């Protein structure tokens, strides 16, 4: 089994935009990898002229919101940083026991999505809260904010189209459906560690992705050595 990884375009955004962007991206990915019977629900973004689709499952929505809440706490403590939120799909397998290890359950990762964000601190206009801001400065600030928001919306659209292209092009690595009653393959959402204080650079992103990919391929190779490949692959309509 191969583990496919998708690096999404970096999005430059302010803290108040993070929640809406993550909802849009995470739900889009999960919906396009959904299983069984789903009740698609169109959702209009509050900050952008963009509509995305959710699976209509309350438990799934709750889990995503909880993870976004955790990430927002991290953002508040680490302002003006580059960071990465990852969504990984995996299979659960029982590892064959040996003479010194009992039966162990392991995760075989088959797809990983890396959402790259650069959360910037909004620019402060004026020297203090009590100082009067010239009208021209207010207009310039408004134009700058509108231009930045339009750029972010365009980049977010690019990310959504990238997701759609990826799920349509990459299907051979998808494992058989584990259970017709579940909405989604098993998945996990990872965010930066709470005590992580270093800046996030492109090289660190690449190294992190490389380590994750190595873990995927190593785990998959080990599984292939003890069990034959699945007879059929799930085909997405």
> Can you tell me the CATH superfamily of the domain at 4-92 and 110-123 and 140-199?
HORMA domain
Number of strands: 7
Structural category: alpha/beta
* pLDDT averaged over residues: 80
The percentage of residues in β strands lies in 15-25%
Q: Work out the helix count.
A: 4
Q: Quick one: biggest sheet?
A: 5 strands, mixed
> Briefly, what CATH class of the domain at 4-92 and 110-123 and 140-199?
Alpha Beta
Overall 3D geometry?
A: elongated
How would you describe what is shown here?
The chain is α/β, with parallel strands linked by helices. It has a domain at 4-92 and 110-123 and 140-199: Cell Cycle, Spindle Assembly Checkpoint Protein, Chain A. 41% of the residues lie in helices and 21% in strands. The protein is built from 4 helices and 7 strands, in the order ββαββαββαβα. It has helices at residues 15-32, 58-77, 135-169, 202-226, and strands spanning 4-7, 11-13, 41-44, 51-54, 81-95, 104-119, 187-190. The strands form 2 sheets. Strands 1, 2, 5, 6 and 7 form a 5-stranded mixed β-sheet that branches. It has a two-stranded antiparallel ribbon with strand order 3-4. Strand 5 and strand 6 (104-119) form a beta hairpin. The longest helix has 35 residues, at 135-169. The radius of gyration is 21 Å and the shape is elongated. Mean pLDDT is 80; it is low at 197-211 and 217-237.
């Amino acid at each position: 089994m191969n583990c496919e990884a998708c690096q999404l375009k970096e999005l430059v955004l302010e803290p108040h935009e993070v929640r809406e962007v993550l909802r849009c991206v995470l739900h889009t990915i999960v919906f396009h990898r959904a299983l069984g019977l789903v009740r698609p629900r169109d959702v209009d973004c509050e900050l952008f002229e963009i509509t995305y689709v959710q699976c209509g499952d309350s438990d799934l929505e709750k889990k995503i919101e909880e993870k976004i809440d955790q990430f927002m706490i991290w953002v508040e403590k680490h302002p003006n940083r580059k960071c990465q939120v990852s969504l990984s799909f995996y299979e659960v397998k029982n590892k064959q026991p040996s003479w010194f290890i009992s039966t162990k359950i392991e995760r075989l990762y088959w797809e990983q999505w890396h959402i790259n964000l650069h959360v910037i601190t909004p620019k402060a206009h004026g020297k203090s809260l009590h100082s009067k801001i010239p009208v021209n400065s207010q207009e310039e600030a408004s134009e700058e904010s509108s231009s930045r928001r339009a750029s972010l919306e365009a980049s977010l659209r690019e990310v959504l189209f990238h997701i759609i292209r990826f799920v349509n092009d990459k299907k051979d690595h998808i494992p058989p459906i584990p259970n017709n009653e579940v909405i989604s393959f098993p998945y996990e959402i990872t965010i930066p560690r709470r005590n992580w204080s270093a800046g996030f650079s492109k090289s660190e992103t690449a190294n992190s992705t490389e380590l994750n990919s190595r873990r995927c391929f190593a785990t998959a190779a080990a599984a292939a050595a003890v069990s034959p490949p699945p007879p059929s692959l799930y085909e997405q309509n």
